[in-house]
Amino acid sequence: MVTTAAVAFVQGPVAFNAALKASATLGATPEAFDSLAKVFQAVHKEAARFAVVAIESSTAGTSHAVYDLVLEHGLRIVSECYELTPEATTRFVALAKLQDVGTSSGMLTMNPSVAAKRSLKTSFVISFPSSIQTHTNNLHQTLSVLASRNVDVLKIEGRLRSADDDSNQDILCLDVAGSETSPHVAAALLELRELTQSIRVLGSYMAVCEKEDTSVKAKPLELEVKDKRSMTEKYPLSPMVTDAPLGRNLMIVAMAKKMEAEGEQVHSLCIGEPDFLPSERAVEAGVRALREGKVKYSQLRGDPSLRQAITKYLNAVKGISYDPDTEIQVTAGAQQALYHALYSLIRPGDKVILPSPYWAAYEAIIKQVQAGVVRLPGKAAEDYLINPKTLEETLIANPTTKVLMLCNPSNPAGTLLSPERLEEIAAVLRKPQFQHVVVLADEIYEQIIYQDEGLATRVHKCFATLPGMRERTLIINGFSKAFAMAGLRIGFIAGPSYFIEPCMVLQGHFTSTANTPGQLMAAEALHEELEMFEQGKSRIAPVLASLNDRRQLITRRLRAIPNVTFAYPTAAFYLFMDLSAYFEGKRALVTRRGGAQVNKESAEVLNDVAEFCEFVLREYHVAISPGVDFGEDFGIRISYAAKIESVAHGMDALEHALQSLTFEQV
Ligand code: PLP
Please, what's the b/e burial string for 13-48 (b: 16 or more CB within 10 A of its CB; e: otherwise)? Predict the structure, then answer.
């Protein structure tokens, strides 16, 4: 590492002037040496950072000795200047060590305003194994390559040199216009390298016009290091983020937001957020908390009033008891709860079984905690419900499975696992060879269950209540869905203290605590919920009735569209449909637009369901979510937590969009 920012030069008045100028440019101080060899040694040994040497003059021509020393020490030219005396004009170059220049091209540039007034030049040396006879040929070849690439030659000088093994070398020293990274110079260098590998680029730097008024003292110039590498090459990011990019659905969301910002009306059926508001009581509790200054950190485990309310709720409504002091962790949303649980459970090599279709964030979170993802594909014909037999086969095939993700009710399928089906799943897990598997029971939609006349009443059963499951289940829940407080970011984990303790530690490290007014609102929402429950009333019933109207509409409309299959929605506010009859092994051509036929040759092509969703957004202003994010390439998720008019408009759009397409095999 060079510590001295000195500019070494060979003692003498003309060289001193050049060194002075270079020093101003390079932000260094001149230092005189009594020979050329010592100047090069100084840079080589890092006693000086730069050398300024005379490389050619109007009377003596090129200094081959300097070229040889530059090559020998592997230095780069970083700038040049001319010194005019009555006797001669001398060209000086400033040199630096390659690693000191710090870039692959070794190019230092001045600040852009200065650079704009000057042009770049590149110096290089090319050598051929040669004899006198081939010298002309080498010269011609070199010049013709440069001419064919439109590279202006500013200087060329050749000589023959005897190599150590007595063979001759034909050496050409060239200066050309342009940077070595400019396309035409780079292409010419590449072509010259096909003639001979012996090319050394000495540097690309600002060319100084010989006639410039050198009496003007050089002003200090800002130095910039030009590094052509991309940000990814320079600063590679963690695989935690690169392996789990944001999905296509978020692109749809972003596109929809942009359209809205541009004043267009968009019918959004792609957001997992209810369209109702928190109860008055909950809002009042939040306002009170703010007025009373309850905006400090809460306890790390969560506000005690909320933890108590959670345990009361789980006990009264779900029939399971937890200790509020050791078995509940309040988090900044259920999503954070999932991180805490998985970070606590996953060790290197562990796998997580992920039934599909799945909520897109699951896959990303599993990858971020460095666990292996094992997909457990569901079938549309089976309402995408977990098949216990397939689950057992998957567990056998993946003995390092640590966690089963159990999202019930399911986002995105909108279906509910019955208590009987849950018991079948638990029966598999009870087998001796699967005792080590922990269940992450994401029950955030547990309150949003619909009934259909003439069919058995649907109930949500908490997985942890099944025999033997409490010990190995972590319940994930939160206030974003049934309580419509998504923006307040309050979630929780309930489970044995053995698992909750590490989650508490992680909570401390991640965000300290969840937001305090939000926790107080959530506690009040649960008090209200429990009071109504005790009176035999359902707080959420009116919301469910409204969501149910949309559910009825959407299922009626979809049944009328040919070849669309879907899981009959019984819970949450999603419907997951399957378009494989349209898109599997096929691509779509948009052959109808605005009622008119478009010929096939000029028709827009939609290669997959994700492109179809983008098309529906662009043409019909309806945002729906491509299934690829949920593990099903031919699926689409529709969220009907939107105005019923938007749902109706969405169904019209889907029907027309599919009618406007002609499918062809790929
Ligand atoms: N779990 C599921 C299945 C979800 O669908 C969502 C949100 O869409 C969450 C968890 C995250 O909820 P929160 O907003 O509480 O982080």
Answer: ebbbbbbbbbbbbbebebbebeebebbbbbbbeebb
Of 581, 588, 585, 576, the closest CA to residue 628 belongs to 576
What's the whole-model pTM score? 0.69
Per-residue pLDDT band for 194 (boundaries 50, 70, 90) equals: confident
DSSP string for 449-514 = B---TTSPPP----GGGSTTTGGGEEEEEESSSTT--GGG--EEEE--HHHHHHHHHHHHHHTSS-
- Centre of ligand 1 from the C-alpha of residue 61, in Å: 76
* Rounded CA separation 303/602 (Å): 62
- Taking the centre of ligand 1 as the mean of its atom positions, its distance from the CA of residue 290, in whole angstroms, is 26
Q: What is the dihedral of CA 236, 237, 243, 245, to 10 degrees?
A: -110
Residue 412 preceded by cis peptide, ω within 30: yes
Q: Please tell me the predicted confidence (pLDDT) of residue 133.
A: 62
Assign 3-class secondary structure to 397-464: HCCCEEEEEEECCCCCCCCCCCHHHHHHHHHHHHCHHHCCCEEEEECCCCCCECCCCCCCCCCCCCHH
Q: Is 641 in the pocket of ligand 1 (CB under 6 A)?
A: no
Interval 434-468: pLDDT, tens: 999 999 999 999 999 999 999 999 999 999 999 99
| Nearest atom of ligand 1 to the alpha carbon of 337 | 16
CA-491 nearest atom, ligand 1: 15
Determine if ligand 1 sits within 6 Å of the CB of residue 491.
Answer: yes
Q: Using 50, 70 and 90 to split pLDDT, how confident is the model at 99?
A: low
Distance in angstroms (rounded) separating the CA atoms of residues 196 and 496 = 72
How far is the centre of ligand 1, averaged over its atoms, from the C-alpha of 390 (Å)? 26
- Banded pLDDT at 298 (limits 50, 70, 90): very high
How many angstroms separate the alpha carbon of residue 335 from the centre of ligand 1? 6
Residue 480 in contact with ligand 1 by CB distance below 6 A: yes
**Residue 639 alpha carbon to ligand 1 centre in Å:** 14
Residue whose structure tokens are 């001796």: 432
